[in-house]
Each structure stands twice: as C-alpha cells, then as structure tokens.
Specification:
This protein is mainly alpha-helical. The protein has one domain (3-111). 82% of the residues lie in helices and 0% in strands. It has 4 helices and no strands.
Length: 113
Amino acid sequence: MKVVDRIESILWVFIISFSIFSIIPSFGYLMDESSANNYAKVCVIFINSIYCFLSGIVITKNKGFKWYYSLVIGLTFIPSVFMYYNIGSIYFSIIYVLIVLIGSLMYLKYTRK
C-alpha cells in the first residue's frame, strides 16, 4: 500500500468519524436541558461505542488490521468533547481506541478458523 493511499484511507476514516462524533450529538440542541443530558449520555455510552466496534470490524475487513486506524478514531472524538460534552468525557477517547481494537481483533479471530 502506497503512502498516498494510506493517507487517503486515514483521511476518510477521520472524516467519517468526525462526522459521526459531531453530527449525532448536535441533535441534543433541539431538546430541553434534561433530555439533552440524557441524549448526550446515550451518545457517549451506546451510539459512539457501537460505531467504534463496527468500524473496527469494517476497517479490518476492508484494509486489514492496522493499529493506527484505532488511534485515528479515538483521537477524532477529542474535538467533540470540547464542542458537546464536558472535559470529564475525554477519557472516552481511550475507551473508543480499545473498542476499535476489540472489534478488529474479534474480526481477525473469527475469520481465521
């Protein structure tokens, strides 16, 4: 894989992850305060985690296992912490890196039987 192709695929992962992490929480602004707080918790705990797990599977299926894709997805969450959540949510970026790695490794385990 050429360097240009690798950078292009990383850029696509970054754009899609940034879109997911930025667009979905923005719907919380359409709700009242208590509903928005509950929606933010659901986004951080469930929606983003499911996205990270599935993206680990899809990226590993399409590109093979590359450790830097999990870092890109985890680090992409950091700007949305400052836009939509409080600073206490920043540790979720580490959790998301681990979830992407779990999804990737599970795909590798179940396809190599």
